[in-house]
Amino acid sequence: MTSPDGFLWGVSTSAYQIEGAVAEGGRGRSTWDTFCATPGKILGGDTGDMACDHYHRHSEDVALMAELGIGSYRFSIAWPRIQPTGTGPANAEGLAFYDRLVDELCAAGIEPMATLYHWDTPQPIEDAGGWLSRDTAERFAEYAGLVGQRLADRVTRWIPINEPAMVTLLGYAIGQHAPGQSLLFDALPTAHHLNLAHGLAVQALRAQGAKAVGTANNHTPAWPATDSAEDVAAAAAYSALHNWIYADPQLLGRYPDELADRLPPASAEDLATIAAPLDFYGVNYYNPTRLRAPSPGNPLPFDLVDIEEYPRTGFGWPVVPDGLREMLVTLRDRYGTALPPIHLTESGCSYPDGVHDQARIDYLAGHVAAAREAMAAGVDVRGYFVWSLLDNFEWDSGYSQRFGLVQVDFETQERTRRDSFHWYRGLVRGE
Questions:
Q1: Which range of residues forms the domain containing residue 357?
Q2: What is the number of structural domains in the chain?
Q3: Is 3 part of any domain?
Q4: Res. 6 pLDDT band, cuts 50 70 90
Q5: Which residues are within 8 A (CB) of 307 and not within 5 positions of it... i.e. 6 or more apart?
Q6: What is the CATH number for 88?
Q7: Is 58 known to sit in a ligand binding site?
Q8: Which conformational region is residue 8 in: left (phi greater than 0), alpha (psi within -120 to 50 degrees), or beta?
Q9: Which of 10, 14, 110, 153 has an alpha carbon within 20 to 30 A of 183's alpha carbon?
Q10: Residue 298 domain flag
Q11: pLDDT tens track for 218-274
């Protein structure tokens, strides 16, 4: 169900951040289970073992979404629930859980938007090379086919991979996320394998009758600290790694020129697979990034610089709604007719716990306004999804960050609607 003007309002979550039940229903071990069990990796020693217990409380959470009046729910499917070892036939209990969730969403008039991979790689796949191995792309395509076969008749939109840039940069380049490797530029082969997995999954989903397939890439305006040639070059290098290493091959069938000498050669066949036409393009936006020329001894071609002239979220991220408008216009200008209609598949903020969260309302109102400004400038934006419905496990920050429209007490699992929940409900319903 969409709003009267056709615009799609939604909320987003991901499996490892909310489901819990990591040892139930035949689910296999993931890289995030392993990473969380490694001392010192997660703030406070937190894990996703329980998270929001969505695995058992999904009906309660669907009821909250129905109360919001949203048109779509973007969730992710845990690969280890479907294939506990990352290969072989589907785990019946795992598929049945998502089958129930999709049925309940449809019964509530909420369109399911399913993401196949939000970073929880089956541990046996990682042990065999993970995203450094081309074979992982083939395994992922098999998984996509299994899920599509079961759910494609009801899932309205599909996203193969969420924010692959973060997998490469945080998971393999600097080790901040699972699997915790610190390979710097030697992590770049993961980019091609993630791109290839995306393309193969698009094929597999379409073969199962998927209605619409897109992507969800994280984008950030890259601002040079000064107008110097060195800082401008640093910003371009960062943007190539963060913004264009996935968007360019997916939309244009080629890698950005700035990375030509750092990536292994890609065959024409691979690039054609990666560039399969998409029905929509997902943009996840949180904040811009400021760069300057690298300091001595820095092996990367840029230094990150704090953006201090704007207010900050609880995470310390600068609140710059106009950065969203800037990014959307930049995408339109860079890709032209190759850019499909856009859905803003993640937009949200963390603030300290509490029900009265005017700062979150202000953040969301500013970013919705920025999206509308981009639309007025001719960018084809068709949906906005708040991150997130629920407070959740926030990766290496554990439970220290609160992104939810709904407050979650992680001791009792009690859900409490925040002021932002009621504000968003009014926005969605046109009240």
A1: 8-429
A2: 1
A3: no
A4: confident
A5: 223, 287, 288, 289, 290, 318, 320
A6: 3.20.20.80
A7: no
A8: beta
A9: 14
A10: yes
A11: 999 999 999 999 999 999 999 999 999 999 999 999 999 999 889 989 999 999 999
- In a domain, residue 83? The reply is yes
Q: What is the pTM of this model?
A: 0.98
Q: Is 284 annotated as a binding residue?
A: no
Residue type, 281: Y
346 assigned to active site = yes
* Options 19, 104, 126, 163, the catalytic residue: 163
Number of H helices, E strands in the chain: 15, 13
3-state secondary structure of 384: strand
C-alpha–C-alpha distance, residues 21 and 23, integer Å: 5
Q: Collapse the DSSP code of 263 into the 3-class scheme (helix H, G, I; strand E, B; otherwise coil) and give the result.
A: coil
Residue type, position 369, single letter: A
Quote the pLDDT of residue 3.
58
93 has catalytic annotation: no
Nearest to 387 by CA among 298, 246, 286, 300: 286
Q: Is the separation of the CB atoms in 302 and 341 below 8 Å?
A: no
Residue 2 lies in a domain: no
Residue 54 assigned to a binding site: no
Confidence of residue 364 (pLDDT cuts 50, 70, 90): very high
* Residue 395 is labelled as binding a ligand: yes
